[in-house]
Structures are given as C-alpha cells and as structure tokens.
Amino acid sequence: MASQDDARSLKGKVALVTGAGRGLGRAFAERLAAMGADVAIHGMREHGPAEYGEGSTLTAVAEAVAAAHGVRTIRVLGDLTQGADIARVVETTTKQLGPIDILVHNAGGDIAAKGGKPDPNDAVGIREEDVRAVLDRNLLSTILTCQAVAKEMMPRRQGRIVTIGSVAAFKGRTNGSIYAVAKAGMTHYTRCLADQLRSYDITVNCIAPGDTRTGRFMGTRAVDQNRMVEAGTLDRIATVDEVARVVEVFAGPLGAFVSGQVLRVDGGGQCWAA
C-alpha cells in the first residue's frame, strides 16, 4: 500500500494541463493535484466546461480541484494555435505558481473551423478550412506548446512532458482521416522531442487513448451500449479514470527513466507494433 508521502510524490511541483476544463483534461489535472502538484488549468473558453455538461466555467473547475486536493490552482485562457497566447499561458503559470515541472498537453480534438465535427470528414472531401483547423488544433498546438515549455525546462535540466495522442494515429481510416494524420504527426513529434531532450534529463511521452467516456465522445456519436459495461471484458469504452491514471507513471517517480514512448490505453484494441 502506498504511503501518504508516496501519494503526494509531486508536492512542490507545478503542472500545466491544457484543455483541462472537462473530460480527460480535467481528469489529468485531478490526478496530478491528488499527487500534490499545483496545477494551471488551461482552456480556450471560460465556459468550455459547460459545452457537454461536464461543468460550468473554467474558473469553477480550478477552484474545485484546489478545494478537493489542497493545492494551488489557477485558470488560464488561451488559443494554443497562437504563439503569443502560448507565451502568455506559460508566463502566467510561471509567475503565479512557479516554473513548470510537468506539461500535459491534452488540448485538441476533431473539430471543424466553425465548431462541431468536420462534415464531410473523409480524406478526399474534407474542406480546406477544416483541414487547417484540425491540423492546427492538434499538431501545431502540440509543437508550439511543447517548444515554449521545453525552453523553460532546459536551463533547469528537469521536467516531464506528456502529450495526449489517440489510437487513431496508428490505423488508416476514411472518417476522421485528418484528425488521424494530425495525431500521427504529434506522436512522432513526441519521439523527436524526447530524443532532443535526453541530455537535459527531461522525459517526453505520449498517452494514446482509445474510445473513452468523455462528455464530448458520448455527445457526438451513437454509442454501442454493449460497450458501456465496466468489468468482465476489455472490449468496452474506457472510463475517464482508466486513461487518466496513466499520467501518474509518466509524470511521477516511476517514469524517471521512461522517455520517447507511446502507450495505448485501449484495452488491447490495437495489438500490433508501432
């Protein structure tokens, strides 16, 4: 059984979690806070948590996480496809909480330029504006955010970076193809960044979830109710907690010598290499 000291193994650390207002992002923030880290809760919109009924405001989420886990939190707004916004998010976090020790870059999604899913959403028919929106939201935001945080970590020669990918990256698909391409790109960027940061003692890893019971997932498609069980089979839709707990390995003491890795969290739905 873990001791109380083990449970608070990130006490004194500062984490930035992007896209943390709801769904997996909030769950990652909760996990890190439970381990003792102070957390910057990032979102693109103050009322984003209410979009799929998982909260009210980003401010309220930050306050709830702080109250539940006895840590400091702040809420930071910004469009992570814009370098100036990213710089402000990093600067605000550093000024109010301290230098960033842990980045969990969760922001992204298969979202069209005008919101919602692209329609059409296949490899040939998707509109140019939606191609750019999906690539920017997922791949570009990953590169720019990781660059900004890595530059702050490198002089201190310490840090943990965790990107949130998707099993979509590892299989050709007609629907959601540009999202899959973007996640494949960010997965390989994670490996490239890990290679560069080895000598700085900074680990860089990727969590690649499969289908997960977030508000967005459940609210944007028909769901097979047979896959909504929570035990007895791995052929099911994951709970948010089953994915979020993996961040404890990559961000915590157990992950000190693990870098450049991509961990699928999909109940074995993809049993092949790479």
The coarse overall form would be: globular
CATH superfamily: NAD(P)-binding Rossmann-like Domain
Structural class designation? alpha/beta
Q: Topology as H/E string? A: HEHEHEHEHEHEHHHE
Beta-strand content estimate = 5-15%
Strand order of the largest sheet: 3-2-1-4-5-6-7
- Gyration radius, rounded: 18 Å
Q: How many distinct domains?
A: 1
Count of individual helical segments: 9
Under CATH, the topology can be stated as Rossmann fold
Q: What is the β-strand count? A: 7
- Write the CATH architecture name: 3-Layer(aba) Sandwich
Question: What characterizes the major β-sheet?
Answer: 7 strands, parallel
Family: Belongs to the short-chain dehydrogenases/reductases (SDR) family.
GO molecular function, one term: oxidoreductase activity, acting on the CH-OH group of donors, NAD or NADP as acceptor
Protein name: 3-oxoacyl-ACP reductase
Commentary on this structure:
The protein is α/β, with parallel strands linked by helices and 274 residues long. It has one domain: Rossmann fold. The protein has nine helices and seven strands, in the order H-E-H-E-H-E-H-E-H-E-H-E-H-H-H-E. A seven-stranded parallel beta sheet has the order 3-2-1-4-5-6-7, sandwiched between helices. The longest helix has 26 residues. 45% of the residues are buried. It comes from Bradyrhizobium retamae. GO terms for molecular function: oxidoreductase activity, acting on the CH-OH group of donors, NAD or NADP as acceptor.
In short, what is this structure?
The chain has 274 residues and is an alpha/beta fold. Helix content is 38%, strand content 14%. It is built from 9 helices and 7 strands, in the order H-E-H-E-H-E-H-E-H-E-H-E-H-H-H-E.
